[in-house]
């Protein structure tokens, strides 16, 4: 099966098939995600919350993103691996942005990077990264790295003014040369309008069914995380807990290890 690329994803816009994107942060989960047929494995900075147990994504470092990205890239054979640029890795200046994006490609072996915010603010960073031949995915709407400014994880684009701003931002991301854009937590009708008006794929999370694709956090769809806003497709947390309880019980009552578990 041919490897999915930024170019093949862009070409799919308007062809009908939806893009499926899921997060992965380590080798075994990346293997599962890839085998399940996702188009994009996103090494999200959500690992700060989901894997590290923090209240936000702000403390995730470049070293940590490179570490997680490499594990994912080593596992994935078919999907495109996109790595998040963590807080302050691209906001300071375009040179820093390029150096850090380059680390995610060279050390992490990602095929593209994602960064949050408008081209008005970070167009210089996007241009510098693209000029080096690294595909960039945009991310607008609820941008978790700005949670302290936004005042919480809430729906964006409810007022007329905010809707217009988000439409401009989506166009700006397209004009800057990004190959796709994540629309997070915006009203479904606005996401539909943006999807209609931009020529790059829109990938929604809490943005309705009209986007060109959907992205969710691996742990959330499997009932492994603590977020409950999305559909849970399996109760993995329950299964894992049950497995651990059965193990503890078997050790305690002496039924493990049994004959077949010991070396002779
Ligand atoms: O960090 C992340 O996982 C993300 C997605 C949820 C879009 O940015």
Description:
With 264 residues, this protein is of the alpha/beta class. The protein folds into two domains: 6-233, Phosphoenolpyruvate-binding domains (TIM Barrel), CATH 3.20.20.60; 236-264, no CATH class. The protein is 42% helix and 14% strand. The chain has an eight-stranded parallel barrel, surrounded by six helices. Strand 4, helix 6 and strand 5 (136-141) form a beta-alpha-beta unit. Helix 2 packs across helix 4, helix 6 (119-131) packs parallel to helix 8 (160-176) and helix 8 packs parallel to helix 9 (188-197). The protein is globular and about 65 Å long. The relative contact order is 0.12. The mean pLDDT is 96. The protein binds 3-methyl-2-oxobutanoic acid (KIV). The site of 3-methyl-2-oxobutanoic acid (KIV) has 11 residues, from strand 6. 3-methyl-2-oxobutanoic acid (KIV) is lined by residues 23, 42, 44-46, 84, 182, 184, 205, 215, 217.
